TrEMBL record:
The active site is at residue 154. GO terms for biological process: protein lipoylation. Belongs to the LipB family. The gene is lipB. Its EC number is 2.3.1.181. This is Octanoyltransferase.
Length: 192
């Protein structure tokens, strides 16, 4: 990702959205409290990263999107809101209502995507340097949900959910990674 960012900054490469999955890891931005990280006993590796946001899990059953794009004409908040709109549209197209989450006291909205009943289903953490974005988002498709009990996701006490959990609650089949990947690519392209 870092090499692609450099090539974008130098004008040698265009915008790219990478959709992939990771081996289990908890990444954390510089504002993360050490108390929010998993203990060594959890067996989860932790890796500091140079993005916004706090501790986030990446692993099997999760779709991770890395956005490397020229965003000089947009501010960081605009890029985050574009990702939120695209993820919300993609989940809606798959039959899963999703929303941005406003704060209780009318402050700025929280970053990410939630179910209408305030369970977080997608996280976003970005960095913009030299007019080019890096890092991105993750959507919980069907990860092992027990992993979220071992750390504080995004520094919030909100419960975390997945599309598999939401599908089971509605007694329907969960979408696969390929279906979610296609919906995200289409929605993010349409909502740019």
């Amino acid at each position: 990702m870092k090499a692609w960012v450099t090539e974008c900054q130098e004008g040698r490469e265009g915008d790219r959205l990478f959709l992939l999955s990771h081996s289990p890891v908890v990444t954390f931005g510089p504002r993360t409290s050490p108390a929010d990280l998993p203990s060594a006993a959890s067996g989860l590796p932790t890796v500091p990263v140079d993005r916004g946001g706090q501790a986030t899990y990446h692993g099997p059953g999760q779709l991770v999107g890395y956005l490397v794009a020229h965003v000089r004409e947009r501010g960081p908040a605009d890029v985050v809101r574009w990702l939120e709109r695209g993820i919300i549209a993609a989940l809606g197209a798959l039959g899963f209502p999703a929303v941005r989450r406003e704060t209780e006291r009318g402050g700025p909205s929280l970053v990410g995507v939630w179910t209408p009943d305030h369970r977080k289903v997608a996280s976003i953490g970005m960095r913009i340097r030299g007019g080019v974005s890096s890092h991105g988002f993750c959507v919980n498709v069907a990860p092992d949900m027990a992993v979220f009990d071992s750390f504080v996701s995004c520094g919030l006490s909100d419960p975390v959910t997945s599309l598999a959990v939401l599908a089971a609650e509605r007694d329907r089949a969960a979408p696969g990674d390929g279906e979610v990947r296609e919906a995200l690519a289409a929605a993010l392209g349409a909502h740019r």
